[in-house]
Amino acid sequence: MEAKGRAKPPSLALPWKTRMILSVITTTSDAALRKNGTVNRRFLKLFDIRVRPTSKSVKGVSSHDVVVDPSRKLWFRVYVPSQHANEDLPVIVFFHGGGFVFLGPDVPAYDAVCRRFARELPAVVLSVDYRLAPEHRYPAQHEDCFDVLKFLDNEENMAKSLPANANLMRCFLVGDSAGGNLAHHVTLRACQFNFRRLKVIGVVAIQPFFGGEKRTDSETQLKGTPIVSLKRTDWMWKAFLPRGEEFDRDHPIINVSGPKAYDISKIEFPPTMVVIAGFDALRDWQKRYYEWLKDSGKEVYLYEYPNMCHAFYIFPELPESTQLFRQVNEFVSKVSRNYDK
After folding, report:
1. For the segment 25-45, what is each residue's pLDDT rounded down to a tens digit?
2. For the chain, which ranges sit under pLDDT 70?
3. Which residues are listed as membrane-spanning (predicted)?
4. Domains along the chain with CATH numbers
């Protein structure tokens, strides 16, 4: 399913509050990226606001944290919609964005996003705190996220971590930006793993962080838009790839649909929802991802937001944000119904 007739708008028009927040995020993150490939975490702590879980229901959702592996500080936050305690609910495993370098489940924006998913779908939502680059390089992030799935597949862990109405046989992997990259690759690995109590039946990739060696039109034309730029994404890819390897943006973990892409034609990859935006410099890579899935014979749906930028959906004041949550709800409901048949 593909929206037609997208015209490139002449300018990015957002409410002043949204533009101000995007500007602060962009400026702060750029200031923390050092030329030597390290991140000034001490500087970031000056702006680092974190929110605690709420054992009591707040706006219809309670939350708690679960530790998977204290040695690598791997944990996730669980969001439970209190008004649906007697319903069989799908499980959303959410991977946050931040270029593999920034953010976490307990930053206000992602805490709010996951609460909204839990409340509006409704679903039991798990938001994973994976290790960050450059201190921890690939495959640390992907290993962490996959290990959370293996943790949940253990009956004792599942009973201690999730409410009784969480249905792990209706599991969706959802992520934005770097989290969208994780959602794809972790799903690919899950398709080839013999889980006993968990089944990934759908993927939601919101503006996934992909790239490649050859510059695309959107990368060059939109290099000055908020959050994403050539300079920033190149820095992040270099910080992400393992030391000692030749820097190659056509690495299959980056260019998922490129010349070194994994052949998924014979893999039962689940239905996938891909979200792209007109003012996202990564737009062309995301569109290629959609086309690659379609050409590989997979069930895939494309949703385009021509007047939005990268990470637009975290701003609840935007009508497009509300629209996206509704579309995710429809996708999860549709895939769940088809799976239950």
Report:
1. 889 998 999 999 999 999 999
2. 1-11, 341
3. none
4. 48-340 (3.40.50.1820)
Distance CA 125, CA 60 (A): 13
Q: Yes or no: say if 114 and 123 are a contact pair by the CB < 8 Å rule.
A: no
Active-site hit among 144, 153, 280, 284: 280
Judge whether 280 counts as a catalytic residue: yes
**Does the pTM of the predicted model rise above 0.85?**
yes
Q: Which of 177, 229, 321, 336 is catalytic?
A: 177
The verdict on whether 96 is a catalytic residue reads no
